[in-house]
Design brief:
With 156 residues, the chain is an alpha/beta fold.
């Protein structure tokens, strides 16, 4: 059902469109099927706990899609560095900080292109990255990983 028919959905399904849900495991088992069928979410987000292999992940996404009456957003937070949900499947992706330290604008573009192609092949249509944080002097001293999420010290 195309998304332009959302108003034709039953009210409960219209409400479900506002929800983005995480899945509990690596397959659409009975628990996951019930969750998806009850909420009928507008989107699902994949976390590291959902990833074992590329084939398994693609099947999880496809099986989830089949249970949702509208075309869902299928998202992941694939930033690279510390936030690399696909590290079980593909070689680690560099952080924004690593790219910034090399001063490699072409590398940043290439990382974005490769990440986008990879996610599209797996069945994703939304990435909650890159994070466009600006690194400040105070943030550069943080030890919680936020320092690694910035491509630079200015909006440019």
């Amino acid at each position: 059902m195309p998304n332009n028919h959302l108003l034709e959905l039953p009210f409960e399904q219209q409400i479900g469109q506002f929800f983005f849900i995480g899945l509990p495991g690596t397959e659409v088992d009975e628990e996951t099927r019930k969750l998806i069928e009850e909420i009928k979410p507008g989107g699902i987000i994949i976390f590291g706990r959902n990833v074992e292999s590329a084939e398994q992940l693609h099947k999880l996404i496809d099986d989830s899609r089949r249970l949702i009456p509208t075309e869902p957003l299928v998202a992941i937070d694939q930033e690279g560095g510390l936030v690399d949900r696909l590290r079980q499947v593909f070689p680690p992706m560099p952080s924004a900080r690593a790219i910034r330290q090399h001063g490699d604008l072409a590398g940043a573009r290439k990382l974005g292109r490769v990440t986008g192609e990879l996610l599209r092949m797996l069945g994703f249509n939304l990435n909650f990255a890159p994070v466009m944080s600006i690194i400040t002097e105070a943030r550069s001293k943080l030890t919680n990983g936020l320092y690694s999420r910035s491509f630079g010290r200015s909006p440019g």
